[in-house]
Specification:
- With 72 residues, the chain is mostly helical.
- It has one domain.
- The chain is 82% helix and 0% strand.
Length: 72
């Protein structure tokens, strides 16, 4: 089953984007705590990405399991 694969890819992509956004925002807001901002946005983004990846994987799995009746 490919559900874990989709979840890991989603978590990695959104986690990376969230961490980059957190770092940039942290550097503009208050430089000494920029690393903490990286985690503050990166971890929730990774969790959301994993959840969205799981949903996307479930949709793909359901579509592949549905029989194709368009041949009639």
């Amino acid at each position: 089953m490919r559900l874990p694969r989709y979840a890991v890819i989603g978590a990695a992509v959104l986690g990376t984007l969230g961490a980059i956004a957190g770092l940039v925002i942290g550097l503009f807001a208050y430089r000494p705590t920029a690393v903490v901002a990286l985690f503050e946005l990166g971890i929730p983004a990774a969790l959301l990405g994993g959840l969205l990846g799981l949903v996307a994987g479930s949709v793909v799995w359901a579509i592949r399991r549905t029989p194709d009746n368009s041949a009639t």
